[in-house]
Design brief:
A five-stranded mixed sheet has the order 2-1-5-3-4, with helices on one face. The protein is built from three helices and five strands, in the order H-E-H-E-E-H-E-E. The chain is rod-shaped and about 95 Å long. About 25% of the residues are buried. The protein folds into two domains: about 45 residues; about 90 residues, Alpha-Beta Plaits. It is of the alpha/beta class and about 160 residues long.
């Protein structure tokens, strides 16, 4: 004879417990995925916003009223730095140093922004007649001035000699 009191085994171990745990895990995975997507989007927006803010900052910079300048002669011709110094001082630039550059065979004159405000460097370059392509930025905490001018062998084409 067969035993009538035999219990049927469930096809799933744990029954209701198993389905509840499965539901909780699926909801948790969904929530974590949503959080990761949201954080990724936030990081993207922050980085894209910083890129545009830097571009806006460069275009919105205004030249200072007083621009401190150093004039360095890299042309190999003596007296050129003095002529540039006189010209700049007559045009209301504060020349804080004049001297020789480490090399004396530069072909083209350069204007170097030292303070982070490129508008100052462009203003100096424009007053001297130096091309915008020859304006560069080299920031350093060692410099206590706004712009460095390195005079090249093209000095005779610039404003102080015209």
């Amino acid at each position: 004879m067969e035993n009538i009191n035999v219990k049927k085994k469930s096809s799933r171990p744990g029954g209701l417990k198993y389905s509840t745990l499965n539901l909780i895990l699926n909801v948790s995975i969904f929530l974590l995925a949503a959080i990761i997507i949201y954080m990724s989007y936030s990081i993207y927006i922050k980085l894209a916003g910083n890129r545009h803010a830097k571009d806006d900052q460069l275009t919105e910079q205004v030249a200072s009223d007083i621009i401190q300048v150093e004039v360095l002669n890299g042309s190999g011709v003596s007296g050129v730095a003095d002529r540039f110094t006189d010209f700049l001082r007559n045009n209301n630039f504060d020349v804080v140093k004049a001297g020789n550059y480490i090399a004396d065979d530069l072909n083209e004159s350069l204007v170097i922004d030292r303070s982070g405000n490129m508008a100052n460097a462009f203003k100096v370059a424009k007053s001297l007649g130096i091309k915008n392509e020859n304006v560069i930025q080299q920031l350093s905490k060692d410099y206590f001035l706004d712009v460095s001018i390195i005079i090249g062998k093209d000095y005779f084409n610039l404003a102080p000699f015209k």
